[in-house]
Specification:
A hairpin with a 4-residue loop joins strand 9 (about 185-190) and strand 10 (about 195-205). Helix 1 packs parallel to helix 4 (about 135-145), helix 5 (about 225-230) packs across helix 13 (about 490-510) and helix 11 (about 435-455) packs parallel to helix 13. Helices cover about 35% and strands about 15% of the residues. The protein contains 14 helices and 19 strands. The two termini are about 25 Å apart. The protein has 3 domains: about 5-240 and about 355-415, 3-Layer(bba) Sandwich (FAD/NAD(P)-binding domain), CATH 3.50.50.60; about 245-350, Succinate dehydrogenase/fumarate reductase flavoprotein, catalytic domain (Flavocytochrome C3, Chain A, domain 1, Alpha-Beta Complex); about 435-535, Fumarate reductase/succinate dehydrogenase flavoprotein-like, C-terminal domain (Methane Monooxygenase Hydroxylase, Chain G, domain 1, Up-down Bundle), CATH 1.20.58. It is α/β, with parallel strands linked by helices.
Length: about 550
């Protein structure tokens, strides 16, 4: 019999989106945070750049909105952009009140944020904590969370699937068209048992999908879990074809990719080819400070043209003292690879970085499934459109988690304390499989297929080839899943195959090139037919 746990709020994921929602909702209910690894492991923790916000005298909401629209290539939702930009500054200050130590310059009354500049931004507006902003924000939020008696964190717990009408002991009448969510089956990976976690309100804040690719800046936990479990439950998904490839990750064969923040280019770093030529200028007059999709494609073309394995980031125009002060983590890490960035060029290549699409939400973070919210990278709020403006991601998570919390405060008043009877977890007839090498092999094959055929530059032939092979893998994985006792590795593989297949489907649907989706068969934008989102959902 499954152990049952009941809470007012169930949050799956422990990044900035989940922790912000937890701190707000803990004021009026009991909160559970379920997280795959330790509570500090999240995409937030790896975010170097900062948080974009129009807070300086030479900036404005209109400028920030305009930059977001230009980068988003025409399909940003105006209402989502406006609320994010306009509500953002107050949450920067709220983070400071929690103890976040943002980098500042000046003294006394003249003390102010040391605002950085990144690709796509017309002015300096990036609030940061040197080059470890995500880690500092996560530290402050976790510190407050751990002190809150209404919040309980369940580390090493993995969501298997959401609890909906399909899991009810007594089925609802078919005329009810709305899908409801009451919680999730959760695997306790340490004790190897599946439990039922109930929540009156459920928040998905599971982060990104970078691990569907062979090369990514994301941590190992970024396997698209939230998108996969929401899709299987009937949730509406959009714009998965818009995977952002960060142009500059350290090229070091045999080692995990290390992100070189866009703030380095904002401070004066210039991308050059092997001969020392500023090649990005040939593709865009903004050069190294063009939006990420343009820079990533420029690097991709340069590598294919030259046959070289990488390009270089030249920081020679930045003073040595400035580099060590502004980018201490990048300086230290590169030094560990025997690269002194104050003297030498950094070898860099693009890597999968950020999912701009996701589980569709409204302006309150509500999804198409009743009582299920989503915030952060797992969500598609309409803010990013076809390409995320640098450092808008942490901002989005702050704004939408706060909006969702305010809405949840009112909604929970009308939700009864009684939960429905849910089918207990039943793994009878399954067994511990000894063919775990299959999981490793299938995972690598998916990542290699996605990198080779669904990367920075695509074509119909590549996408169709990827679709056929990933469909086959996904089918085999599902069959394996049904007869095998669940493990974290198996659940991740299941989710990876689901999200990879969905991304390819979205990419095949879009018969144009826009933002992060570039296909050689349709190299131009088509505003008449495709100035819109790409939706996909499962009939359940």
């Amino acid at each position: 019999m499954s152990r049952i746990r009941k809470f007012d709020f169930l949050i799956i994921g422990s990044g900035i989106a989940g922790l912000t929602f937890a701190l707000k909702t803990a004021k009026f209910g009991k909160v559970a945070i379920v997280t795959k690894k330790e509570d500090t492991e999240s995409n937030t923790n790896y975010a170097q750049g900062g948080i974009a916000s129009a807070i300086s005298d030479d900036d404005s909401f209109d400028l920030h909105i305009d930059d977001t629209f230009k980068t988003g290539a025409g399909i940003c939702h105006r209402d989502a952009v406006e609320v994010t930009v306009k509500e953002g500054p107050q949450y920067i200050r709220a983070l400071e009140d929690l103890g976040t130590r943002f980098t500042k310059v000046g003294r006394g009354k003249n003390k102010r944020y040391d605002l950085g500049k990144e690709g796509g931004h017309s002015v300096n507006r990036i609030v940061h904590a040197k080059d470890l902003t995500g880690r500092e924000v996560e530290r402050a939020l976790l510190s407050a969370t751990r002190k809150n008696k209404n919040i309980k964190i369940f580390s090493n717990h993995v969501a298997v699937d959401l609890l909906t009408e399909h899991n009810l002991m007594v089925k609802r009448r078919k005329k009810e068209s709305k899908i409801h969510c009451w919680g999730a089956y959760i695997l306790d990976t340490e004790n190897k048992i599946v439990e039922i976690f109930f929540g009156k309100i459920i928040m998905l804040s599971t982060g990104g999908t970078g691990k569907i690719y062979l090369h990514t800046t994301n941590p190992d936990i970024a396997t698209g879990d939230g998108i996969a479990i929401a899709y299987r439950a009937g949730g509406k998904i959009a714009n998965l074809e818009f995977m952002q490839f960060h142009p500059t990750t350290l090229y070091s064969p045999g080692n995990k990719p290390f992100l070189i923040s866009e703030a380095v280019r904002g401070a004066g770093g210039i991308l050059k080819n092997y001969e020392g030529k500023n090649f990005v200028k040939e593709y865009d007059l903004r050069g190294s400070l063009a939006p990420r999709d343009i820079v990533a494609r420029a690097i991709d073309r340069e590598l294919k043209k030259s046959g070289r394995p990488c390009v270089y980031l030249d920081m020679s125009k930045i003073k040595r003292e400035t580099i060590k002060k502004k980018f201490p983590n990048i300086y230290k890490t590169c030094l560990s690879y025997k690269i002194d960035i104050t003297k030498e060029r950094i070898p860099v290549v693009p890597s999968a970085h950020y999912m701009c699409g996701g589980l569709v939400t409204d302006l309150l973070g509500r999804t198409s499934i009743e009582r299920l919210y989503a915030s952060g990278e797992v969500a598609c709020t309409g803010l990013h459109g076809a390409n995320r403006l640098a450092s808008n991601s942490l901002l989005e998570a702050l704004v939408f988690s706060n909006r969702a919390a305010r809405d949840a405060e009112e909604r929970i008043k009308n939700i009864p304390d009684k939960f429905p009877e849910i089918l207990p977890w039943d793994d009878s007839g399954t067994f511990n499989h000894d063919e775990w090498i299959l999981i490793s092999h299938d995972k690598y094959e998916i990542q290699k297929l996605m990198w080779d055929y669904v990367g920075i530059v695509r074509s119909d032939f590549r996408l169709q080839r990827a679709e056929r092979r990933i469909k086959l893998i996904a089918k085999e994985v599902e069959q394996f899943y049904k007869k095998t006792k669940v493990t974290e590795q198996l659940l991740e593989l299941r989710n990876l195959s689901t999200v990879a297949e969905l991304l390819v489907k979205c990419a095949i649907k879009r018969k144009e090139s826009r933002g992060l989706h570039y296909t050689t068969d349709y190299p131009q934008k088509d505003d008449k037919k495709w100035k819109k989102d790409t939706y996909i959902f499962k009939k359940v």
